[in-house]
Amino acid sequence: MTELILNRQHYTRLILEEVPAAKKFLWLATADLKDLHVSRGRRFVPFLGVLAELVARGVYVRLLHAKEPGPRFREDFDKYPELLHPELFERVLCPRLHTKAVLVDGRLAYVGSANLTGAGIGAKNEHRRNFEAGILTDEPGLVQPLMEELDLLWMGGHCGACQRRSVCPDPIA
User: Fold this and answer.
1) Domain-by-domain residue ranges, the chain?
2) What backbone torsions phi and psi does residue 147 show, to the nearest 5 degrees?
3) Most exposed residue of 23, 51, 117, 122, measured as fewest CB within 10 angstroms of its CB?
4) Distance (Å, rounded) from C-alpha 56 to C-alpha 45?
5) Which tens digit of pLDDT belongs to each residue from 108-146?
6) CA Rg, the chain, in Å?
C-alpha cells in the first residue's frame, strides 16, 4: 500500500490512526516542533500525552528535531514523567534536519512536508492550517532505507563531517 495523504489527512490518518497503533517503536523526525494538541474524545490533549501513553505501554519513541521547541512545549513535556525514561523515550536535536518522517514498528513510513505543529499536521482550523502533502507506505523498499537513514542520523553518522558543528547545541557524536 502506498497512499497520498493531503492536508487534514495528516492529522486524521497519521496522527489519530497510525501513531497510536504503534506496538514496538515509533520514530518521529521533524524540522519544527511545537505544542501540537490532538483530540481525545471530547477534549484536546498535548500530542506529548499520546507519546507518553505509548511509552507507558512499552513502545520505544525516538524524536529527532532541528531546533528547540518553545516554552509551551516544555511546559507540556514536564507534565509527562513517562517521557523521562531514556530507555523508552529519547530526543535528539540536529540543526541540519529538514526531514519530516514517521516510522511505525518498521512496517509503515510517512514522508512528506508536514512538521509536528498544529498548522503543519492539520490539527488547526481549515482556514489556518498549512497545505501539506505526504506519502504513507508499507512498501519494504521504501520503509527500510528510510529507517536506515534515520538511524544513521540518530547515531550521529553525519556528525564527524558536519560543517555546522559550530551552531549545533548538542552534537550527537
Assistant:
1) 2-167
2) -60, -45
3) 23
4) 16
5) 999 999 988 888 887 767 787 888 999 999 999 999 999
6) 15
Q: Check if the beta carbon of residue 59 is closer than 8 Å to that of residue 24.
A: yes
Please give the Cα distance from 99 to 63 (Å, whole number): 12
Q: How far apart are CA 173 and CA 164, in angstroms?
A: 13
Q: How many CA atoms lie within 13 Å of 116's alpha carbon, on the beta-carbon side? A: 29
6/73 Cα distance (integer angstroms)? 25
Task: Give the chain's count of helices (H) and strands (E).
Answer: 5, 9
Residues listed for the chain = 173
| H or E element in which residue 52 lies | helix 47-56
Q: Which CATH number fits domain 2-167: 3.20.20.80, 3.30.870.10, 3.40.190.10, 3.40.630.30?
A: 3.30.870.10
**Which residues lie below 8 Å from residue 57, measured CB to CB, with a gap of 6+?**
none
Cβ proximity of 80 and 63 under 8 Å: no
pLDDT band at 164 (very low <50, low <70, confident <90, very high): confident
Pairing outcome for strands 60-65 and 89-93? parallel
45 sits in which H/E element: strand 43-46
Q: What backbone phi and psi angles, to 5 degrees, belong to 139? A: -70, 115
Tell me what pLDDT residue 147 has.
Answer: 97
